[in-house]
Amino acid sequence: MPDTVTVRIPTALRPQVDNHESLDLAGGTVKEVLGSLTSQFPELGKRLFKADNELNRFINVYVNDEDIRFLDNLDTVVKSGDELSIVPAIAGG
Amino acid sequence: MSFVKALSCKECEAEYAIEPRTVCDFDFAPVEVTYDYDAMRGRVTRDSIESGPPSLWRYRQLLPIESEPTIGLHSGWTPMIKADSLARELGMRDLYIKDDSANYPTYSYKDRVVSVALMKAKELGFDTVGCASTGNLAHSVSAHAAAAGLRSFVMIPHDLEEGKIVGSLVFGPRMVKIKGNYDDVNRLCSEIADKYNWAIVNVNLRPFYTEGAKTHGFEIAEQLGWQLPQHTVVPVAGGTILPKVYKAYQEFITLGLVDDNSPKIHAAQAAGCNPIVTAIEEEMELFRPQKPDTIAKSIAIGNPADGFYVIGVVRKTGGWGASAEDGEILDAVKLLARTEGIFTEPAGGTTLACAIKLIESGRIPRDESLCICITGNGLKTIEAMAGQFVETPTINAKLVEFDELVKQIDKTNVPPASQPIST
């Protein structure tokens, strides 16, 4: 049984994932987990990733509340029970 | 009636109706209000604006509002100061301070964006408004909501200055302190906006909120006698105001209200939180987020949502960026106070300190006109000034003791700011 990670889906993305608020997905790194997500929901893949497989710059991904850009980006290792959040960047001050 | 066309994605140009919306459904890029400029020509004129009220609502036709304004009736139209004393100190010829430390009712540029956002919240039928804030936005949301009879929720980082907390609480919002920095608060707020049907001004009302920031730029142009400064230095936190000052200048140019003198826009950040300036200086396409560590807490946003657009505007206009250390920030706060009589918060000190660096490096030539955007008030962050001044003497109420003190002060080399009138 591979590790599964809970992925929290923002409202804006839910129409692409049959309106799930979260999904439990397999993978040992952020890239693998997001790969599981986008292979189930290919339309979502087009929105999360640019053509060159770089993450869309308006999307922030957090593992247990830490921005993956402070970790190992898409290569960040995840384990069972971790929570991965996809959050659109927003403004303020 | 307004000249609003739609909400349009800044990247893919997908169009949406005027509705609460955080980002584009397709690529998550920000959406922006678009207008029918052709219809505005001949109807939005210098005269039509000048005959408006002395508030940001004089630019109502360039804002996304359909009904008669009832919120923020005294916000905006802040002083534009010809800063001759500061100019002499810096060797500049034509220097201006756009002073939103005097904005009404909560003394920061946020009174502009909140006025527009809450008007829109009202038009859209919301009864609860909220925000993620480093303090100034929370003040403004709390005050405007109180006056408008709306319920408010404000979310702030747990370690803000006391003045920043009291300055909201007095208006009776529901305040929540979040363990984490602003970026953590922001992330939570975007999830809250998803779950509750509230108008979070910088989340699902963001497209309308950000339009309010244009009025800072409109006023600079109008108050300068319908012309644009050759250089504008703007602080960068989340990245809202800088691109909107640019948009304001471009709208006035499009409508023929000012000449296009190719105004350059420069970015100012604290050295302890300078992801955008780093990207500009290192000519990177994207910025890397940072964990903020600066005295300028109101601009301590390490992951600026509109940072990408700040970089774009700075490059497009031929501007540049600078960042300032805490010591330089406090020195600049004192410099502005002692030369122009304006007490700004550390964010304003940052902007001035960065402007000085850009002048000294030749990015802003001394014989060209410059406007420095001061966006917040120092009375909210007095803790930041701790230890900056000589101890204030205490004497008995006797003239002889005062005479003795004056003699001593004459002998001491105290900085001009605290120097009394000499005999």
In what order do the strands lie side by side in the largest sheet of chain B?
4-5-13-10-11-12
Helical fraction of chain A: 10-25%
The separation of the N and C termini of chain A measures 44 Å
Query: What is the approximate shape of chain A?
Result: globular
Order of helices and strands of chain B: EEEHHEHEHEHEHEHEHHEHEHHEHHEH
Biggest sheet character of chain B: 6 strands, mixed
Oligomer: heterodimer
Spatial strand arrangement across the major sheet of chain A? 2-1-5-3-4
Instruction: Give the amount of beta strand of chain B, in percent.
Output: 5-15%
Q: pLDDT under 50 segments of chain B (min length 5)? A: 418-423
Q: How many helical stretches of chain A?
A: 2
Give the C-alpha Rg of chain B: 22 Å
Rg of chain A (CA only):
12 Å
Short structural description:
The complex is a heterodimer of chains A (93) and B (423). Chain A has helices spanning 30-40, 42-48; strands at residues 4-8, 22-26, 59-63, 66-67, 83-88. Chain A is of the alpha+beta class and 93 residues long.
Structure description:
The complex is a heterodimer of chains A (93) and B (423). Chain A has 93 residues and is an alpha+beta fold. Chain A has 2 helices and 5 strands; from the N terminus they run ββααβββ. Chain A has a 5-stranded mixed beta sheet, with helices on one face. The longest helix of chain A has 11 residues, at 30-40. Chain A is globular. The relative contact order of chain A is 0.24. With 423 residues, chain B is of the alpha/beta class. Chain B is built from 15 helices and 13 strands. In chain B, the strands form 3 sheets. In chain B, strands 4-5-13-10-11-12 form a 6-stranded mixed beta sheet, with helices on both faces. In chain B, strands 8-7-6-9 form a 4-stranded parallel beta sheet, with helices on both faces. In chain B, β10 (231-235), α10 (241-254) and β11 (264-270) form a beta-alpha-beta unit. In chain B, α5 runs parallel beside α6 (162-169) and α11 (275-281) packs parallel to α12. The longest helix of chain B is centred in the last third of the chain and has 15 residues, at 326-340. The chains are: A alpha+beta (93), B alpha/beta (423). The interface between A and B is large, with 24 and 47 residues.
